[in-house]
Structure formats: C-alpha cells, structure tokens
Amino acid sequence: MVRKLLAALAILALGMTAAAAQSCDDIVKTRQSLMKRSGEMGKVASSMIKGETPFDLAKTKEVFAAFAEDASSMPTLFPDCSKNAEHSNASPAIWENLDDFKKLMAKFATDVKEAQENTKDLDGLKASLDAIGKDCRGCHERFRIKKS
C-alpha cells in the first residue's frame, strides 16, 4: 500500500514538473508574440509618420493599445524558469537587474498612457512615438541579446 502511494506521489510530482515547464514555455511564447505584434504595430505608426499611409486615428489607437498591453504584461513574463529559454533574445541582465527592467517598463507604460490620452493628429503621433521609441530602444539595448 505504501509503495503504491509513493509511486502515485512520484508520478504526480513528475506531472507537476512537466506542467510547470510547459507553462514557462507558454510564458516565453506569450512575450515573444506580444513583442512581435508590437513590432508590427510600430511599423504601422512609422508608415503614417513617413507619409507612406495617411494618418488614421483609429489605427493609432490600435497601436497604442498593443503597446499598453505590452507595458502591463511584460513585467510578469520573465519568471526565473525562463532565464535559459531556447530561442529567446532576453538577456540575463533582465534577471540580474529586475528592478531596473520593471522601472523601464513603468516608464514605457506612462509614456504609452500619455500617448493614448494626447495623440489626436499626425504631429501628436510623431511626438508620442519619439518618446515611446526611446523607451523601446533603451530596454532593447540593455536587456535584449543582439542577433548576430
């Protein structure tokens, strides 16, 4: 009876370990998906700024909504289990300086919120995207492994 109980507990423990690993993989995939979408949204905004497409306030709101989701989600998407994730460009510096990373995310969130509230035209988009772009570059320069 004791052997059966120990065997059942061992199987349960292995299952929980596998579930935890899966959830960590899912977290990495989520953050990569969010960043990819934000990159695509940045291209939409950049196209408007360059005059390649006309300014569209509704599209601008979509861009900032995507950025806002990143800003609120990203601080929670770097658990310890994802430090050595395969196919990730996250730098170990994130985990070494987690408070600094979260401060940059908070500034990004503040700048995105300000952009959502104040952007009404192309000039506003240019100003907002300039501030937000600085946030993105600052984080990527410090906390992203550069592709070779």
Explain this structure to me?
There is one protein chain. This protein has 148 residues and is mainly alpha-helical. It has one domain (2-143): Cytochrome c/b562 (Four Helix Bundle (Hemerythrin (Met), subunit A), Up-down Bundle). It is 76% helix and 0% strand. The radius of gyration is 20 Å and the shape is elongated. The protein starts with a helix and ends in a 5-residue tail after the last helix. Mean pLDDT is 88; it is low at 14-21.
List the helices and strands and how they pair.
Layout: H1 2-49, H2 57-73, H3 93-96, H4 98-118, H5 122-143
Structure described in brief:
With 148 residues, this protein is mostly helical. It contains five helices and no strands.
Considering the chains and any ligands shown, give keywords for the structure.
76% helix; mainly alpha; elongated; 148 residues; 5 helices; single chain
Helix content: over 70%
Number of helices in the DSSP assignment: 5
The average pLDDT value, as a whole number, equals 88
Q: Note the gap between the termini.
A: 57 Å
The shape is: elongated
Largest sheet geometry: none
